[in-house]
CinA-like protein
Amino acid sequence: MLAGRVRDANGPWIAERLGELGIDVTQILLVGDRPDQMASALRFLAASGVDLVVTSGGLGPTADDLTAAVVADMTGRPLELDEHMEKVVGDIIAKFADRLRWDADALAEANRKQALVPRGATAIRPAGTAPGLAVPPGDGFAPTVLVLPGPPREVRAMWDDALASGPVRAVLERTAPFAETHLRLFGVPESDIAATLRTVGEHTDLGPLEITTCLRDFTLEVDLRRRPDDAAALAAHDAVVAEIDARHGRAVFSRTGETIDEIVFRLLQGRTIATAESCTGGLLAGRLTAPAGASGHVQGGIVSYSNEAKEHLLGVGHDLLEAHGAVSPEAVHAMAGGALERFGVDVAVAISGVAGPGGGTAEKPVGYVCFSVRTADGREITRDPVLPGERGDVRERSVVLAMHLVRRLLTEG
Amino acid sequence: MLAGRVRDANGPWIAERLGELGIDVTQILLVGDRPDQMASALRFLAASGVDLVVTSGGLGPTADDLTAAVVADMTGRPLELDEHMEKVVGDIIAKFADRLRWDADALAEANRKQALVPRGATAIRPAGTAPGLAVPPGDGFAPTVLVLPGPPREVRAMWDDALASGPVRAVLERTAPFAETHLRLFGVPESDIAATLRTVGEHTDLGPLEITTCLRDFTLEVDLRRRPDDAAALAAHDAVVAEIDARHGRAVFSRTGETIDEIVFRLLQGRTIATAESCTGGLLAGRLTAPAGASGHVQGGIVSYSNEAKEHLLGVGHDLLEAHGAVSPEAVHAMAGGALERFGVDVAVAISGVAGPGGGTAEKPVGYVCFSVRTADGREITRDPVLPGERGDVRERSVVLAMHLVRRLLTEG
């Protein structure tokens, strides 16, 4: 991977999948794409005693993509042309080349390179154009190496085949899946959970339980992981869950790791929804329409960034905007009403706020955001918190908060 | 950092900043948050001969956040309470606690822990609640260590102070910034650039030039980096740029690293814009409104996810939709016209496509997306490509392509 130029979208995902299988992931390394850097990283990992190394990236057509060669060298397995895989890759590439009119010579060269397989390794059918490799230990190099391409979509698509390959199966047979609980909380700071865990630790040994807390997408994720046959770990698990329920029960919205997006999608089945957004500029509509099947309930939305748009497209009264301002509980109430009516939906969500960095006043500072979620049958939730963070934070946090308000209104009703 | 649970948003950013200062970043490590894992990683990096280690994360209030203690131990510098920093952190925390009604005891404990500084190190004023640390070498541990908190926003906010600290300045004085060229291309596959670079390599020695190519946000980034006083590197640089211009000149939209978002923002000064989105569900409007100051030109948008919304909110004719379908050049032309008229803007962008996974037909497969960019004075660009990838890819790629079409119409006009 090109050090410093690429966000690592694969490491955490792979680590999570391996964790579910009972494999303890001890390190994630991002290294430069020079052969010596890669070799040095592999030697470091082998010396730390790991059973399995998963690499991603470095299988592409550019000359600096050398992962397969480095792994072949490290395990003393010469690269050999896999003719079946050459044909598989060739067929895939031919389709691309035809459709996109790419340079055929460059593609043919890439083709040959990508069908080279270390002797004794298993090639994994590509999802893009690059096959993966499952390489058994060899030449004093003890870990099994699973070599995957860089694009996250390909890693995900090839994952099941990779696990089914002989060399990886041999590693998996030596472990058992963890038992896991995935609590998701909204609106609780990490420091409160830390205090809760300290309290539990005063009377219960938490040692045998692996607890990770992580703030992601403004959601506090508390993951509990234990060996399934460990009674002390189970006792610790139950004590932690009981204390979190006692102190933060109202904030727990998922006990299965189900995301707020999945919950809202589920709640919207058989209903229709529309949005009216100002400061979030369409991000809430974008998020609601992200999952396949969203067209079953999302009718649309209006991004009323200007006051004129709020008046003309959502029917918000000019006098109301003059009296209360575009960022006010009154304005979002009217915006949501406009969306209910214009789209003829069951549920409407309106957001208007001061995202910053400019536009804040003493009374309505940067981060002040008003929310209204209304149903066609007359129920409503309104909120107007001051959200922390900079412009991007305020916008993204507003979207997440709006999702939770939709959840609340639809589960209470 | 919690291995496997967190996407590394800091490593690449920090590596890029250091690279600009002439520091060659050789490795990015993500390690678990156990002290022995962290210590092992620090020893590995020291053994590889680096001058500077930057850590992020592990400064939070939870008991597993131990970076400062590990670095103190490694450099033989006992932790001491920095009373000035204790007061700074205390004041910050008091404000949060007051506003958000968090548990004051938990916060006070966090406060004390976060004001502990290894002897001889420089504390860096926090952007959130956790100060950073610049720790000079010590006790046989040769690298300087810069310890930063985990949240990307805080890393960015504290970066200038961190560079100005004595220990980091001492490292920076030993290097000189690289000369860099940042080409940005849209619509060229990485394999074509690879072929172009191979051609140049046949007659010019590219060894002294560092070339990284990276596909990010559907944009091909070609970064050329060289020591400023190296004549051979300059010759290689000029040869590469000339060949890319000759072969892919039309695709080059930036030579300074300026992003498509920055270019469109600049072009929209003194104009107004609105959107009409179907398959992208508001993501284009969300992207246009991301930068501060967007309200100067973005009037708003309509997410017409359903056909009813296309008719009623954008005035697309029922007969037109019947005759050509909602995904057609005719439909987006009418949608853009509706947005021009409804919002009274200078420029309107309409997108309608088959994002998938369902809904594709032989004639209009998944990935078929229609675009219309129109100006109030009658100019227009229409496109209807079949975009590769899955639902999320198609949506995001459509947004980027729309940004480029806006750029093209506004630079040609």
User: Anything to note?
Assistant: Residues 391-412 of chain B form the longest helix (22 residues). The first strand of chain B starts at residue 27 and ends at 31.
